[in-house]
């Protein structure tokens, strides 16, 4: 592994000036048209200002009502926001929390706010560390909180002191809260005041796309959380269109063809009304136009960007699957392509094609039974649909399998695996 402290500028310098490196030469193409003017508006994680937030007024008002007491130095209510991915949960949580902080501060009430992505910080220690280090106001507390070497208990000790010294209230957003490996953190935070650990009001805004999350919490956590729940509904095509219209200025004037935003909205609405997907497809369509040196972003760029997004999503679904599983899916995809009249294929037919595929790349060929088991596993994951047929007279019943996703998408995705590339 490379030494962490290796300075890249120490590497052998073959190009005197960075601009001389042909790999990075931008070139002055007189016909080149700029596509983006403020691309950052389409970046994942960008928090748009309030004028760009569309169609969530009721939700913003509802969440704000729970946090409003902090403006009068009263305790806020805890909030739980559920909803499918890309429905604006994190956005609303962050937006309302920030506005609450500003409103309280204009009344001279200091409010601390922290955003924790629990997918990244999924242990009690990591969450406690992030919250403590973010809220630590060094000039007021004189604490220098270590990054490593102490456990959650010590972080909490610091935290309670920081809260007492620096704040009247604090709001902690726990995004993707279902990814936490331990719900004790919720107990610690929601009971801090009543258990006398801190004198500051603490509000938790928890966000999850798993509606069943609450049922998994233990009774003590549930009773201390006593939260207000909100469920965000997916966006329809009109709302998605509005959301993108409000970021149109990410592009240079006149480069978006008229049908680009409506088409992107229609595509994302079919998916399940995911605003993130819509914004990603729009950005990628622009990048494709840029790479092709086109002067406008067109419907074709959107369609290609949509396919790219689907291949990406399918790849995500296969993350962690072995190359053998990809051989099996490749075999099934090829069969479906070669024989479009047939809707589903028996295990033995897939096995035969799989054997040829594995042979071609000199990979180990698994037994038919193992392939059957792997197909059943893929059916469980929703990649394959397996149905039992009656079979003919004298034949027993057997399983037939078909791909759930479009064949082209599956092929593009599995062929990204370097072992399968040689099949092309
Ligand atoms: N109402 C809206 N107005 C403007 N932009 C929005 C709106 N809703 C979502 N977005 C944008 O869509 C993207 C996804 O939103 P967000 O991250 O809030 O979704 P989420 O529901 O938290 O999704 P996940 O569960 O996957 O985290 C962000 O870039 C966000 O800015």
From TrEMBL:
CDD domains per the UniProt record, alphabetical: AAA
Domain of life: Archaea
One annotated GO biological process: DNA replication
Annotated region (Disordered), positions in chain: 1-22
Domain Cdc6 C-terminal: 329-414
Binding site for ATP: 87-91, 235, 247
Any Pfam family: AAA_22
Listed GO MF terms: ATP binding
Cited InterPro entries: AAA+_ATPase, AAA_22, Cdc6_C, Cdc6_lid, ORC1/CDC6, Orc1/Cdc6_arc, P-loop_NTPase, WH-like_DNA-bd_sf
Record bears the keyword Cell wall biogenesis/degradation: no
Annotated keywords: ATP-binding, DNA replication, Nucleotide-binding
NCBIfam families the record matches: orc1/cdc6 family replication initiation protein
Entry function: Involved in regulation of DNA replication.
Protein name in the entry: ORC1-type DNA replication protein
Organism: Halomarina oriensis
């Amino acid at each position: 592994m490379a030494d962490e402290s290796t300075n890249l500028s120490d590497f052998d310098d073959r190009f005197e000036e960075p601009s001389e490196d042909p790999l990075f030469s931008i070139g002055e193409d007189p016909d080149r048209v700029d596509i983006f003017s403020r691309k950052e508006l389409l970046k994942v994680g960008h928090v748009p200002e309030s004028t760009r937030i569309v169609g969530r007024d009721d939700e913003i008002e509802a969440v704000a009502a729970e946090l409003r007491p902090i403006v009068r130095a009263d305790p806020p209510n805890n909030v739980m926001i559920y909803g499918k991915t890309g429905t604006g949960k994190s956005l609303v949580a962050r937006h309302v929390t920030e506005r609450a902080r500003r409103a309280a501060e204009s009344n001279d009430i200091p409010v601390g706010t922290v955003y924790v992505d629990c997918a990244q910080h999924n242990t009690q220690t990591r969450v406690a560390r992030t919250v403590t280090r973010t809220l630590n106001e060094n000039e007021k507390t004189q604490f220098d909180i270590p990054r490593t070497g102490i456990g959650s208990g010590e972080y909490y000790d610091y935290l309670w002191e920081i809260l007492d010294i620096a704040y009247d209230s604090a709001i902690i957003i726990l995004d993707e809260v279902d990814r936490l490996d331990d719900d004790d953190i919720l107990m610690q935070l929601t009971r801090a005041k009543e258990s006398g650990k801190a004198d500051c009001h603490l509000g938790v805004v928890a966000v999850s796309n798993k509606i069943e999350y609450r049922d998994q919490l233990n009774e003590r956590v549930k009773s201390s959380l006593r939260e207000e729940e909100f469920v965000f509904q997916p966006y329809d095509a009109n709302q998605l269109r509005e959301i993108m219209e409000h970021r149109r200025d990410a592009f240079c004037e006149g480069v978006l063809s008229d049908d680009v935003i409506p088409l992107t909205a229609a595509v994302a609405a079919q998916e399940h009304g995911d605003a993130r997907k819509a914004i990603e497809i729009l950005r990628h369509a622009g990048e494709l136009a840029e790479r092709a040196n086109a002067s406008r972003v067109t419907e074709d760029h959107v369609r290609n960007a949509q396919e790219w997004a689907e291949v990406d999503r399918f790849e995500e679904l296969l993350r962690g699957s072995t190359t053998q599983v990809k051989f099996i899916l490749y075999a099934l995809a090829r069969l479906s392509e070669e024989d479009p009249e047939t809707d589903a294929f028996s295990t033995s037919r897939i096995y035969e094609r799989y054997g040829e595929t594995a042979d071609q790349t000199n990979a180990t060929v698994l037994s038919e039974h193992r392939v059957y088991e792997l197909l059943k596993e893929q059916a469980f994951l929703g990649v394959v649909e397996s149905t039992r047929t009656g079979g003919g007279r004298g034949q027993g019943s057997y399983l037939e399998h078909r791909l759930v996703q479009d064949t082209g998408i599956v092929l593009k995705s599995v062929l990204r695996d370097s072992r399968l590339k040689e099949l092309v």
